[in-house]
């Protein structure tokens, strides 16, 4: 009600609903509609007192809006029904059905692979906090399998016909529905150059899997044609762009191990080609790759298949000294060694280099002062200086964490 009459829905929108609720002391609008419903006899007893209520995203109070206090062309079938919320966040509930796409002519469409302006109710979506996971979840809300691509900017002049109505849509990697994301409705700090433009897809879903190649895990790519079909192996991941963090995510999400890192690349297996390249994961976001045959630059050598090391805490593993070469030039000790960490039933190699800080060397029963331990990934060079008088047998023992793992010239 406005003064002693009803409000007409001409030009009324979500911004107006939000600001009017705030004017009445609420946090914001929960929903609004128009009509007569079951209140027709009540409505007919009042005149229409407010018409053409027009509020935009830049308006901060109802006083900033445009409106007409004289009814010119309304009937009670256009009366506004408003539900307000006491939630001080002033956010209205977001629903999956609120999203749709329009083309450059402003027409709605629902076509796989076609790029369009992402809409939320009667406005656009700002790209603040928007990410790949948000794109996938929005496309799924509109009935697609996933997002094919997204960007932000202008779709011809279509954007200017609408207000920006959704901002700060933040979907981290743990949420499975856009309704679980955080967001702001009818409040933003964006321009139309930040409007989300998106293309959705119903193409087969790629599923990444790890195969034990004997010393590490090979990263393979499977394709799942439908939600009920089993994935089938189609090829391998090219090592371009693979980072330790991406390896960690693959290990954690597929094998459940706590740690992971990039491993030396290997040769193609099973007669299958490269399928994906530049597979990258970002903190708090979904991992993404590029189709191998669409990449401008990609692996051109069959030995560039991506591989990762997956492991849990180093302390759970046994240390294995694979080799040690000791020289004793002029009162110095130079030790070159290779170490692996072993655990039954798991690919095991390069577990955080924890042994590096536990190496000590004993010469003739006396510890020598180490000048440095260099190297990484289980390959270390240790240098030290012998103190005291030489002994006749020159027994040398190598300790890791107080345990003797190698000895020379010791009876």
Task: Provide a quick synopsis of the model.
9% of the residues lie in helices and 39% in strands. The protein has 411 residues and is mostly beta strands. The protein is elongated and about 115 Å long.
Reconstruct the topology from this structure.
Elements: E1 6-7, H1 14-23, E2 28-34, H2 40-43, E3 48-54, E4 66-68, E5 80-85, E6 99-102, E7 108-109, E8 115-120, E9 123-125, H3 132-141, E10 146-152, E11 163-170, E12 182-185, E13 196-201, E14 205-212, E15 217-224, E16 232-237, H4 244-255, E17 259-262, E18 274-280, E19 288-291, E20 307-311, E21 318-327, E22 332-342, E23 359-363, E24 366-367, E25 369-376, E26 379-385, E27 396-400, E28 403-408
Parallel strand pairs: 1-3, 9-11, 16-18
Antiparallel strand pairs: 2-5, 3-4, 6-7, 6-8, 8-9, 8-13, 10-13, 11-12, 14-15, 15-16, 15-20, 17-20, 18-19, 21-22, 22-26, 23-24, 23-27, 25-26, 27-28
Account of the protein in words:
The protein is mostly beta strands. The chain has four helices and 28 strands. It has helices at residues 14-23, 40-43, 132-141, 244-255; strands at 6-7, 28-34, 48-54, 66-68, 80-85, 99-102, 108-109, 115-120, 123-125, 146-152, 163-170, 182-185, 196-201, 205-212, 217-224, 232-237, 259-262, 274-280, 288-291, 307-311, 318-327, 332-342, 359-363, 366-367, 369-376, 379-385, 396-400, 403-408. A hairpin with a 4-residue loop joins strand 21 (318-327) and strand 22. The relative contact order is 0.09.
